[in-house]
Amino acid sequence: MELTGKCVCAGIAIGKIAVYQKSVSAVERREIADPDAELLRFEKACTKAEEELQELHDMALKQVGEQQAAIFEVHQMLLQDESFVQSITGRIRGEKENAEYAVTRIGEAFAAMFAGMDDDSMRARSADIMDVSNRLVRILAGWSEERTDFAEPVILLADDLAPSETVQLDKSKILSFVTRHGSVNSHTAILARTMNIPALIGVDFPEDAEGKSAIVDAAEGKLVIDPEISVLCAYQEKQKKADAQKHLLQKLKGKENITLDGKKIDLYANIGGVSDVADVLANDAGGIGLFRSEFLYLGTDHYPGEEDQFHAYRTVAEMMAGKKVIIRTIDIGADKQADYFKLDKENNPAMGYRAIRICLDRQDIFKTQLRALYRASYYGNVSIMFPMIISVSEVKQIKKIIGEVQEELDKENIPYKKDVEIGIMIETPAAVMISDELAQEVDFFSIGTNDLTQYTLAIDRQNLKLDNIYDPHHPAILKMLQMVVENGHKGGCRVGICGELAGDTTLTETFLKMGIDELSVSPFMVLRVRDQIRKTDTGRVE
What we know:
Structural class: alpha/beta
Shape: globular
Radius of gyration: 25 Å
Number of domains: 3
CATH class of the largest domain: Alpha Beta
């Protein structure tokens, strides 16, 4: 039986199936005689749930890093959310309902409310609410926790997996995740990618799959149950070749990123937080080409202060020991929302109030970040990059604000590097078309192919219905990349790519022939791209 789904994290897994069964039973309504005693029982359950979530946070911190562990802080905040808690206590007191039933009904109502919202990040909060509600119900009802250990490595099938369930699983016993529901942007999908485990979503697997042999080909979006011997042998050979390739790639550590005809390329890695630096170093990246600083803002319920940001940037700069660290200023908005920013709901948020537009409008937030960045520059090789640029006037305004920040630091006798390189993201067609003018203002360009593709093709990259026509290989995109390289080089700018396309090894040769100076990819793709670079002859005459 061959079933199809959507790839979350590519790879091949071969093994037996284990179907993840949640220990959730129907919750019956009971009328209670003493609401005060029931409220006390609810409060104790909340305390117990917070303790469990803290343990999960600490576990996730060790396994997948600070950025992904932050989801359990979000769950703890939900337990303290006034409207959520008061709605539950109101039902217990007013309706004289047992706490399990009140939590179930309110949890379902809140989850349905968030699921119906237009914004993707708000819809994702629906699953978080159900996770917290189910935890409370389990504690109140005295049910045992879900099965999280297995006798042998398995392909885990589930209706869906909550982040708390994913983190508790013994990763050495998980060959692959396959779920019926979920999305490629869910917390669990992100965790799967962080742990580099092959994963599929949207697979309608049969109920009787437990214990059967199976193959997951996540890259092809396939789950094959009870494969024929010939199919199994073919995939075993394919897996063996993939493992051998990984082993060979390890031999590329310490090698130069140089083409057959002698052109050297800077090969960097993208990160979202301090904890990701370990993967950058383990995979021998030459530096960090994109530090997505917005994750410092997304993992909290308040604006991160100057000292918190300074500490994070300085830590990364020092860990990279003189290697280049390009930090992108905050790119909040669109699909990356933080409630405390109090951004208005927009009909088309991808083209709305986001990134540099917020920074130039709310300069107090921007200056706080710039101060932290310039202070951190004293401790390493830091460059600063600005997203969503569409005009020369924006760049000139940014440079004016940088001047003001430098004056403040000088007056306070705070050390920083005066010659920090500044660059911009080229991710709008407008920036492409005036890249010759922009090159006169900055030291480098980094092309963000994810947004550039959606804006050029007029396709919302969050819309799953349009996946079949979202084409980053479109000739229009490639022509734009060539234009940016030519204009950047004429103006003395270094030009790199930091979007998902940078790790597409089918285009590595094309990029090098264009004259791209730098590629910045996922840490796990560094050696694979290095291998492709070293096999390429650009045919360019310098």
